[in-house]
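User: Assemble these into one structure.

Assistant: Restating your components, then the assembled model:
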Amino acid sequence: MARPATEELRRRNRSALLDQLHRRGPQTRAELTEALGLNRSTIGALATDLSESGHIQETTGRSTGAAGRPSTLVECVPEAETVAAVEVRADRVRLALVGLGGTLLARAEVPLEPGADGPEAAELAARLLADTPAAETVAAVPGLVDAGVVAQSTELGWVDRDFRTDLERATGRSWRVADLATAAAVGERSRGDAHRSPNLLYLHGGRGVTAGMIADGRPRRGSSIMLGHVVVNPGGQKCRCGLHGCLEAEMGTFEQSATIEATTTAAWMGDTAAREVVHRSGGLLGRALGSVVTAATPDEVLFGGWLRELYLSSAAAVRSSLAEATLPQLRARLRLRTPALGSEGPLIGAAETGFEALIGEMR
Amino acid sequence: MLLELSRISKSFGPVEVLSEVYLAVDAGEVCALVGDNGAGKSTLVKCIAGIHDINSGTIAVDGAPREIHDPRDAAALGIEVVYQDLALCDNLDVVENLFLGREKLHGVVLDDDAMEQLAAETLDSLAVRTLRDLRQNVASLSGGQRQTVAIAKAVLWNSRLVILDEPTAALGVAQTRQVLELIRRLADQGLAVLFISHNLNDVFAVADRIAALYLGRMAGVVNAADATQSQVVELITSGRSGAVGLPDPNGVQS
Ligand SMILES: Nc1ncnc2c1ncn2[C@@H]1O[C@H](COP(=O)(O)OP(=O)(O)O)[C@@H](O)[C@H]1O
Ligand SMILES: [Mg+2]
Ligand SMILES: [Zn+2]
């Protein structure tokens, strides 16, 4: 009976060590010993074990500290475990093959026909993936995603689309499907700058405006926040969703996703009409955000997609209306930021979702 | 508080340009300094930087009053000023510019590869993706890229307070955005940042606190999270907004 217990402990330690290296990058054995709270000989045995299985390698790293003596670093072998991440957007499908440790091994992109349905998008994903070896395959899709089903996507025009099944049919592999904004939040928290924020809200500006949330360090999987359909002007513009006065409809999102650059540049150059549009959009965004902040109390909000350009061009309006729409206690320590990973966040986050499952299964 | 100014006054001849100005900037925060043209923003920066001597008042760093008579005094205290006309050497490349003068300061001699690696790591830590070739001469860089190099230098030199006087004034819209993100990242890495601008969008995009100078006096300091654009505009243009502001804005020039 003693043996299985030891074996289980060894597996747990293996998984913990790999997780530490995957998340934090190359480290010395001493640093690993410290970080994992295991003793030196245990780390030594695990390192030998994981070297033999091809997961890690030890290299003479660069000199650390003032002494300048090179130290031996333990690092992941990227090719040992790989995750394929696919991002589906209105006009393209992108693929990133990510190796253990977060190394980008390959990437590819193909255009998507406007109005393409689930099977068509899945077919493109299959073509990009071809026979790439990957232990996990994860797709990020903008919209409301639940258990592999895209319940609503303004960007793709899909309703109740069982995209996981589409992908499985097209590729013969099993898939995880994540909402794009939530995937981006995971990416920014694990590989971007948002590691200090256990409650993170990522706003995604694409053809629609959605938001993904990490609460207490865990992604609220599958349930993105439909920020674009928060009503900011009751009885206002008719929205595609059927309501009136939604943020998306009032901001004219569909024009903005294509013309944000032109509009903000014109505003910056002093064009009064463009300034009015940017200022008004910023104010409306702040108001909608106020409701979400009040309900979800995030520590940090990231403005992703074209909302980055809008926020940086209209921050005075965004923050003014946020100040008028939230309690002082909720806004005092709220950080408003733009994503450190830029447009790579969703793919990186989707890959991280795969690695979390992969490393978890090794336990 | 990393930097604390109290009752700073500065005159040029008979003209008092700064009158009993107070201001505090802490590590990890962006404090924006706003005010109309001629309000005294640049003069205040030059007092902190050791270019002008103050007539009265105190400048405290880490709670201890300091005498700053010379830019070297400021540098020794970890204060780095990024001016609009940046002090970069056009005939040197990015890496060389980043390390210019550093040997003298720390007495460490780094080889070329080590310098390049350290430069790359610094830019990486600031999420700078716009400088691909670190071996190109800075003469070939855009305004925004030059600004980036100047700011990265502050990080590489372990500065504690970075002061930027109108860093986005001469930049296009895309470059302005990158510099704003960089300013925010500096503070998130633990540096104190004093950011001078008269563009309120830029200010609200990055600031934690906003200090408004009005005719050489500090009209008020507000939290960016609590402020609205119109309050800040009022502070700038009239020295008062609601309960915040100078008791007698119109008596300032007495
Ligand atoms: N070296 C100087 N000699 C005389 N007057 C000066 C000098 N520098 C600035 N001033 C004056 O001080 C005032 C404040 O200028 P400045 O600090 O440049 O304002 P800001 O940066 O807020 O636009 C202005 O009236 C300006 O003319
Ligand atoms: Mg000035
Ligand atoms: Zn709607």
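Chain A has three domains: 5-76, 80-184+346-360, 194-339.
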